[in-house]
Prior knowledge:
The protein is an alpha+beta fold. The protein has helices at 28-31, 59-64, 78-82, 128-137, 139-144, 156-161, 169-208; strands at residues 6-8, 24-27, 32-36, 50-56, 68-69, 74-76, 92-95, 103-106, 116-121, 162-166. It has a domain at 17-168: DNA methylase specificity domains (Adenine-n6-DNA-methyltransferase TaqI, Chain A, domain 2, Alpha-Beta Complex).
Amino acid sequence: MTEENKSIGKFPNLRFPGFEGDWEEKKLGEVADIGRGKSKHRPRDAEFLFGGKYPFIQTGDVRKADLYLTDFTQTYSEAGLLQSKLWDEDTLCITIAANIAETSILKIKACFPDSIIGLLPKENKTIVLFVKYLFDKFKIEIQNLSQGAAQDNLNQDKLSKIEFAFPNIEEQKKISSFIFSIDSRIQTQKKIIEQLETLMKATREKVFSQKLRFKDEYGNYFSDW
């Protein structure tokens, strides 16, 4: 497999009824516009670049996010925006340094540095959810493509040349919708578990500090500890 023709993902063993025909192998650059984030100013930690109204997404924000990215820890000022770029919602953010091949879909307009690639699907070629799930499925294989350099990383050129197998756009939507419904349930269950863990921790603290006491069958508090 050459760098110019890296193929990841072939054809499905299981398909939804009503869909026929082979999936077509295409380079990522053929189905999406791919660009690198911008942060031209040096040093990057110049104070006047930050503290404004424009979200500035970093690799750690992408790693922490689930399917959609809305939370951020830093913002750009007007000066920061001038030396960067404001990306649209539904851009797939792909980390190419530090935490390689982590992905999340922007649900806000935001800037990000050149350690993150922005991917926007071409109309009627693919959809962002389908590409996101491809990256989730083949994350290890994509990370392996970054190995071999002095410092492991991906770049825009490597990503553009990766080949995936794509069905037609309607089958992509069907697959993405199905996986999204499962993903949504998982996220809901995670929130329920987090709430229960918080409740358990708070209850445990109150019980063992004797701020919360239980009553017997007659309505009387149990005797002092």
